[in-house]
Specification:
The chain is an alpha/beta fold. The chain is about 40% helix and about 20% strand. It has two domains: about 120 residues, Response regulator (Rossmann fold); about 100 residues, Arc Repressor Mutant, subunit A. It is built from nine helices and twelve strands. The structure holds calcium ion.
């Protein structure tokens, strides 16, 4: 196995990013820089299209210029937030006016960049947003589960029925991974690639099932009727919350 940096870059999560910018040269520069960082880009060049595309697709982040033809970036942002869209939004502004930035944050922007900037600076800001996502979704060190079961992920211990049961590091990693990705089904392949760090998931996926059974015995109130680590038939597993 090599540690070629290109291989590492390709293993980084690919994110879906919408770039809303009406200055064409800038829009293309931004798109190229983001794609170079390994993410996929959709584009919109005015406020109306931006709102439509943002609402139709599921994006991880929107780069949103404030001065746009049609409705402004601020209007787009307010409407997205009014519709409960929680996507991260990084606004671009040529306006040096502090009032505009304050309005941008009030409307729900997560970060901003003042023009002019280099596309590389922008990509660094975008990656910082994704790191923040990861931190915010990381499980707490002490998990309180139904049935008065507590899991200390730092010490790898389960406290239940007055006893302490050790977790293996692998079990701790699986549990953290399931919790971090509680908003979706986690497949056996996901676990083999991201927790076991196998290069390919074309191996015995029963390894995963056996570990899940062991983990359920430790953390489920009723291991024979699991409710926390749910089986999604034909797909994988899903954390209950
Ligand atoms: Ca503009």
């Amino acid at each position: 196995m090599t540690t070629d940096p290109n291989t590492q870059a390709s293993q980084k999560a690919t994110r879906k990013i919408l770039v809303v910018e009406d200055e064409e040269a800038l829009a293309l520069g931004i798109r190229d820089a983001i794609e170079h960082a390994g993410h996929t880009v959709s584009m919109a060049h005015d406020g109306d299209a931006a709102l439509e595309i943002a609402q139709a697709g599921s994006f991880d982040l929107i780069v949103l210029d404030l001065m746009l033809p049609g409705q402004s970036g601020l209007d787009v942002l307010r409407k997205l937030r009014a519709n409960q869209h929680t996507v991260r939004v990084l606004v671009l502004t040529a306006l040096a006016d502090e009032e505009d930035l304050i309005r941008g944050f009030e409307a729900g922007a997560d970060d901003y960049m003042k023009k002019p900037f280099s596309p590389r600076e922008l990509v660094a800001r975008i990656e910082a947003q994704f790191r923040r996502d990861k931190l915010e979704s990381a499980p707490p060190a002490m998990l309180e589960l139904p049935g008065d079961i507590k899991v200390d992920l730092a010490r790898l211990e389960v406290h239940r029925d007055g006893t302490t049961i050790p977790l293996t590091p692998r079990e701790g990693d699986i549990l953290s991974y399931l919790i971090e990705h509680h908003d979706r089904v986690v497949t056996r392949e996901d676990l083999l690639l991201d927790v076991w760090h196998y290069q390919s998931a074309n191996v015995e996926t029963r390894t995963v099932d056996i570990h899940i059974v062991g983990l359920r015995r430790k953390v489920e109130p009723e291991p024979s009727k699991p409710t926390l680590i749910q089986t999604v038939r034909g797909k994988g597993y899903r954390w209950y919350s």
